[in-house]
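Sample intake sheet
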Amino acid sequence: MNFTERWIWQSPSWTDFQWQDELILPRLRDTRLKLGILLGKASLNTCTEQSLDNLLANIIASSAIEDEQLNVESVRSSLAKHLGLSSDQLYPTSDRSEGLAAMMLDALQNQHAPLTTPRLFQWHEWLFPSSFPSRREDEWSSQTLIVGKLRGDEPMQVVSGPPRDQLEQELDKFITWFNQSCQQTDLDPLLRAAITHFWFVTLHPFDDGNGRITRALTDMALAQADSQSIRLYAMSVAILENRKSYYQILENCQSFDSASDLTPWLLWFFDTLDASLNNAMNIIDGTLLKTQFWQRHHDSGLSIEQVKVLNRLLDGAGIEGKGRGFVDGISASQYQKVAKVSKATATRHLADLLEKGCIEKLPGGGRSTRYCIKP
C-alpha cells in the first residue's frame, strides 16, 4: 500500500457520506422484503440450537477473515454457557473463547445500551485476553500490542485511518453519531449498519482487531434494526466467502478520490447481506424438510443405517449445492460407504426405501442410478 496516498478522512467531505438513491433504495426494499420472508420461515421452526450455530459461525468466520483459526468447540462451549445451555458434556473453554463469546453477546443482547469508548476498550480486552500471545507482540511489528486502549504513534499496518493525534476526536464523533442515529427516523437502519461498518473500519482505532470489532459493531447495528432476525443469519460467513472483494471495495471507497460517495460499498454490503439471508433461508428450508420427512416416516421401521443415509440426503436436499449431504442424490456404492454395509445389503436397503416412499430414482439407470429424497 502506498503510504503517500491520500485517504477519505483527509477530504473536506469526510463523514458527509453520499450515495445514489436510485441504486440504493431498491436494494433496501428488496432486503427488507427478504428479511420479512426469513422471519416468516423462522416462525415455523424456532430453534435455539440454530441460533447458537449462527452466532458460532459469525465468530469463527470473522476471525477467519483475519486468517485466525479458532478452536470451534471451545467457542461453541463458551457461547452455550453464556446462553444458559451448558451441560457436563461441553468442550473446555479458554480465555480467548470466553472473550469472543462475551463480545458477540454484549453486542447483540445489550444492543440498546449506549456505545462508549470504555465499552469498545472492553471489547478489545475480551478480544485479546492477557493469555493471548498477540497481547505481547503482533505479527508485523516488534512493538508490544496495545490492548484496551487506542493505538499508539507507531506506523499502522493499515494506513487508511487518521493519525493518532486526530483519533480521539474522530472516534468521539463516530460514537456520538452511532448513538444518535439509532433514533434517526429518516435513516434506514440497514443503511446505518453499512455506514457503521465503513466508518469504524476506516478509523482503525486499535493496534489490531479492528475488523473483528467492526463486524461486531455491524451486528449490533443490525440487531438494533431488527432484534428478531439477527440470530437467523451470519453475515461474516458471507464476507469470508468474498474476502478479496471485501478488502478491495473498502480500499477503493477509502481513497481520497471517492469523494465520500459510498454507493459502491453500500451495494457490496447489501449484496453480501442478501447472500447471508439466502443461506439462512436455505438452512431453514432444509430443517423444515427434515422435520416434515420424519413426521411422515417415523413409523416406517427403518434401520440405523437407513436413517443415517437419509439424514445425509436431507442435509443436502435443502441447501442448494452446499452442506454435508449429497445434493445430487446417492448411488448404491455411496450408500455402501456411508452406511458401512456390504454391496448386497446396500442394494436391499435402497429397494426397501423405494418401496416405503422415502426415496425415488433420479433420471438415469444401471450403475449410474442415483436416488434422492422423495418430496
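Comment: The chain has two domains: 8-283, 299-373. Strands lie at 330-331, 359-361, 370-373.
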